[in-house]
From TrEMBL:
Record carries keyword Cell wall biogenesis/degradation: yes
Record-given protein name: Xyloglucan endotransglucosylase/hydrolase
Role according to the record: Catalyzes xyloglucan endohydrolysis (XEH) and/or endotransglycosylation (XET). Cleaves and religates xyloglucan polymers, an essential constituent of the primary cell wall, and thereby participates in cell wall construction of growing tissues.
Localization annotation: Secreted, Cell wall; Secreted, Extracellular space, Apoplast
Cellular component GO terms held in the UniProt record: apoplast
PANTHER family tied to this protein: XYLOGLUCAN ENDOTRANSGLUCOSYLASE/HYDROLASE PROTEIN 8-RELATED
Domain of life, per lineage: Eukaryota
Skewed-composition ranges (Basic residues): 313-326
Annotated signal peptide: 1-22
Organism: Prunus avium (Cherry)
PTMs per UniProt: Contains at least one intrachain disulfide bond essential for its enzymatic activity.
Family: Belongs to the glycosyl hydrolase 16 family.
Length: 335
């Protein structure tokens, strides 16, 4: 029986996990220790668990990057971490906090991404979000933004809400992007169980001005710090393909389910001030916008002032995993 039938078997408590007050704060959710929810992915000593057991340091040096992965697969839920990014010269450095099932489904994987793109000295980190479904890497749905703070100065919370009808990205409880499932998207909306990953790696070939500015290991090691780890959803047994446990414990009322009126005002303000690229307006990549796009002429005009974005043209972007490349087409070319 395939994963497409998982909806029939998701535990009864799934509704309790996700069907709660939209206005609640996610900050009341239980924080788990690293050993409770995660395993090392790669990086040897470049992954360090702090003494409290709830904080993790990932570093990148000339030898390797590093990363960790959730012990369980999840079918929908709320996933969050406080992250502090490396400072100073960070061009070519990529820090990622994302969900994926690429190891289980290499040809038709799903993915929900936060990617943090480093920069040259004096230029700010940029943040990129993306959604893939059913291997839809040729229709990547990238958006890119600046932030209203320096993410290397202190910890900030980055969160993903994933339900069967929507995906919402949050920064410090402010929703910055909402992806609603539409009938026309079909399998492009992530639907199969995924693991949660966090990585730091060398994206010199594409991450800063299309590869013009590369990682300079004179400034290594590059250190990304993670804390306040939240895994709140229905875990899925990868063999039986059934939901083996749902997080129905305390604080489930703190999981958001949508964007409130006040949050929408904040989201609209963020997007007007800080969004620098949206796939919906990429005429080089798409002759006509993907079906779910709603074109706003004012937004299109505002985005035109930013430097143009160059896309793949046959080049493959190096994947987040240390052992595998994946085929996202978007490349960040403006700094």
């Amino acid at each position: 029986m395939g994963f497409s039938h998982l909806g029939l078997f998701v535990c009864a408590y799934h509704v309790l996990v996700l069907g709660v007050l939209a206005s609640a704060s996610s900050r009341n959710l239980p924080i788990i220790s690293f050993d409770e929810g995660y395993n090392k992915l790669f990086g040897d000593d470049n992954l360090m668990i702090l003494r409290d057991g709830k904080s993790v340091h990932l570093s990148l040096d000339e030898r390797t990057g590093s990363g960790f992965v959730s012990q369980d697969l999840y079918h929908h839920g709320f996933f969050s971490a406080s992250i502090k990014l490396p400072a100073d010269y960070t061009a070519g450095v990529v820090v990622a906090f994302y969900m994926s099932n690429g190891d289980m489904f290499p040809k038709n994987h799903d993915e929900i991404d936060f990617e943090f793109l480093g920069n040259i000295r004096g230029k700010e980190w940029r943040i990129q979000t993306n959604v893939y479904g059913n291997g839809s890497t040729s229709t990547g749905r990238e958006e890119r933004y600046n932030l209203w703070f320096d993410p290397s100065d202190d910890f900030h919370q980055y969160s993903i809400l994933w339900t069967d009808s929507q995906i919402i990205f949050y920064v410090d409880d402010v929703p910055i992007r909402e992806v609603k499932r539409t009938e026309s998207m079909g399998g492009d909306f992530p639907s199969k169980p995924m693991s949660l990953y966090a990585t730091i790696w060398d994206g010199s070939d594409w991450a800063t001005n299309g590869g013009k500015y590369r990682v300079n290991y004179k400034y290594a090691p590059y250190l990304a710090e993670f804390s306040d780890l939240v895994l709140h959803g229905c875990a899925v047994d990868p063999i039986e393909q059934l939901s083996k446990k749902c997080d129905k414990t305390q604080s489930s009322e703190s999981v958001p389910t949508g964007v409130t009126r006040l949050q929408r005002i904040k989201m609209d303000s963020f997007r007007k001030k800080h969004m620098t690229y949206s796939y919906c307006y990429d005429r080089i990549r798409y002759k006509s916008p993907p079906s779910e796009c709603v074109i706003n002429p004012q937004e299109a005009e505002r985005l035109r002032v930013f430097d143009p974005v160059t896309f793949g043209k046959g080049r493959r972007r190096h994947g987040k995993h240390h052992h595998r490349s994946r085929g996202s087409q978007a490349e960040a070319t403006s700094i």
